[in-house]
Write a structure and sequence with these properties.
Number of strands: 18
CATH superfamily of the largest domain: Zn peptidases
Structural class: alpha+beta
CATH topology of the largest domain: Aminopeptidase
Strand content: 15-25%
Helix content: 25-40%
Order of helices and strands: HHHHEEEEEHEHEEEEEHEEEHEEHEHEH
Number of domains: 3
Largest sheet: 8 strands, mixed
Shape: elongated
Mean pLDDT: 93
Amino acid sequence: MKIRIKPKKISWLILTLTILGFASPTLLANRQFRLPAYYQKIQELTARLEPEIIAIRRDLHAHPELAFQEKRTSGLVADYFQKLGFEVRTGIGGTGVLGVLKGALPGPVLAMRGDMDALAISEETDLPFASREKVVRNGQETGLMHACGHDIHTAMLLGVAAVLSQMKGQVPGTILFIAQPAEEWGDGAQKMLQDGVFRDYRPEAIFAFHVDDTLKAGYVHYVPGYSGANCDTFFLNIRSEGCHGANPDQCVDPIVVGSHVVLALQTMISREIDVQDHTVITVGYFHAGTATNIIPDKAELRATVRSYGDQQRERLKEKITRTITGICQSHGAPFELDYQFGTPSLYNHPELLRAILPTAEVVLGGPDRLIEDRPEMGGEDFSYFAREVPAVMLSLGVVPPHLEKTAVHSPTFMADESAIGIGIKLMSCILMDYAWKPAASRVRAVRAK
C-alpha cells in the first residue's frame, strides 16, 4: 500500500526516512516508500493494549506510594513482566524491578526506565480514580498523590514492554525495562546501580519519558546536552553567646551575619560566576530567634545550589565555602557548614538524541511536534543512569484538552491519558529503530564524568 502525503510534508519525510535508512531520496520523492512493517504492528498493538494500560495507570494513581515504599506498585510491575515471559529481578535498590526482554535476533542491549514513587500531597482533583491514600509525616496526616506523573511513566513502561514482547521475533538484541523507586528522593537510580541493575546486562543506551505540564498531548520537548541541574545543598549554623537586644555589642548577632551571607552569595553569582555557567543559589530556610528583644544564640540557614556539570559544582562548593568562612570569621562568629552533593545534572547525549529525533518526527507526525527546549534548573535522578551509559529523556506533553495548563507537584495536577498511547508507540518505535541500526552507527561514547 502506497502512502499518500501532501507536498509540504515531502521534504521532512525525505530527510527523516533517509536518515533512518528506510528509503532513498529518489524513492521518497516519487512517493514510493514504506515504513518498516513493525511500525504498523506497533500501531495495532498499542491501540489494542491502550485501554488495559490506561486502567493500570488509574489503578496506580489511586494507590500511590512514597519513595522506597512502592511495594504494591513494584509487585504489580513484577507480575506484569512475568506474565509477558520476561526474566525478572526484584528488590533492586530496595523496591526496584528489572524486566528483561530477549529478542529473537542479534542486536544491542538497550533500556527504558520508568519511575514509580509518589508525593506526600493531598489530591484535589475530581477524578473518579483520585487518590484517597493517607500517610503520617512529622506527626501530621497528609495525602499521597501521583502529582508528578510517575503513574503514567510506569504505565508506559509496561505498555512498551507489552508491545515489544508480542513482537519478540522482530526485536534485535535485548531490552531492559527498569521500574525505579525513589526518584523524588533523588537516589533511587543510584541505589539500583549500586545494587547491580546492570550486573548481567549493560545497555548501550537508555531512554525515558517525563510528563510535560506545558505541552498538549502529541507534542514533545527535547533538550540536547545538559537538561537538568546538579541539586546540591548546604546547611549552615551560625553560633553566638546570645544577649539582650538592647546591648548588641555584648555578643555576635547571628542574624546579621546570616544576612551578610545571603547577600554575599547573590553578589557572588553576579560577580564571580561566568554568565554562561548557569547557576542558582537560593537560601530557602533562614531561622533564628524567639523574641523581638533577644539576639539569639543561633541562626540556621539552608540552601539549594543548582548548576551544570561536575567542574562547576566543585567550583561552587569552593567559592561558597570560602565566602561563608570569610564572613563568619570577620564577624568572629563560630559556624558549622555541611555542604552536600545531591543528584547530578542530567545530560542528554547529543549524538543519541540526534539519532532518535527522526523516529519521533515520523511517529508524532512532523517536525512541528518536536520542540527544542531550554535546560531547566530542576533535578532528575535519571542522571545517574546517564553517567553510566548514553541517555536521552524526552518530555511528553500531557496538558488536558480542556485546560490551558496544568502543574506537576500540584494537588490539582491532571494529565491527558491519550498521551499514554502516544508515548507507548513513540518509545516502541525508538527502541526498535535504534536496535536495527548497524553497530557502527550506534552511539558508543560515554560522557566523561
